[in-house]
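Worked problem 6 (solution included).
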Amino acid sequence: MNPFLFRLFRDNETRVHELNYLFWECTTRCNLHCRHCGSDCSVQSREPDMPLQDFLRALDTIPPGHRPPGFTVVLTGGEPLLRPDLEEAGREIRRRGFGWGMVSNGYFYTEEKQRRLLEAGMGALTISLDGLEESHNWMRGNPNGFARAVEAIRLAASNPRLAFDVVTCVNRRNLKELSEIHRLLEGLGVAQWRLFTIIPIGRAAGEKEMHLTDAEFVSLMEFIREKRRSGGSMKTTFSCEGFLGRYEEQVRDVRYFCHAGINIASILIDGRICGCPNIDRDAFSQGNIYSDNFYTVWERRFQPFRDRRWAKKGSCASCGEWRNCLGNGMHNWHGTCEEVLQCHYLKTRPSK
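Solution. The predicted structure is:
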């Protein structure tokens, strides 16, 4: 799309700010101890699981006339499969007319679990695979993680009812494995593979092997571009992390647009209301379901998400691509920082 027309589209989307995607951080308990976890989740979480009825009360504040077709509630964590009432939650979300899906590490995803979740109305699923066996298990901190994830992917890919994709966190260990991972996933029948990189927050901040050099990042873009050009049964795409300059619309279907606070909201484990769960919750939470009406917060707040002029500082202040980038994804601004944590455009800009 022409950049000018895309900016008009983005500005109109921002003005209307139709909510159509809601994350629920339903637990911060997790059976794994992943090196890249931005939430520092653990088996013994400091936060108890949010009671289902508390979330449903917040969901019920969305007026029936403001629930567009395709509105999806995504259960995330932690690991949602650790919740004993997961199927009940799915049925209640469906009963209210919303679609729902889940993001999982796949460790506890069995044929019987899939059957019960589908009966509860699950329509979408994302499972993580972060390398071949050694790399994935290193990342996930469990010697059985890879085998369990691959079996979960096989099960999910074989069911035509599911809108299913696999996500991979690309790092210095698995970068050279991408072609083999592509062949593995294509062989399992996966229709879509989504790749992303890490930001230096949470556990990942201190893991040097998690962070690509600029040259490695460019090689990732070239890999995705080549796979998209060559076709095949599986679509390979880059996530919506940030503006990519010369790679815009070559490594994903549409131009960069951070939808957090525009079309996407999240209800966090302690009731806070934010954009997507990866955003700095201390700096950017807009309210709390235990003290505020969720939908009123959505309609009347979220100014930092919908007017990004506050981010025109540091290196962003003089950047010629500001109007296309708006300071990168919201998850790249943490605390009171005066500089964006990372800039994908600078990584991909050709050397002079």
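Discussion: The beta strands are 21-25, 72-76, 99-104, 122-128, 163-169, 192-196, 235-238, 264-267, 272-274, 287-288.
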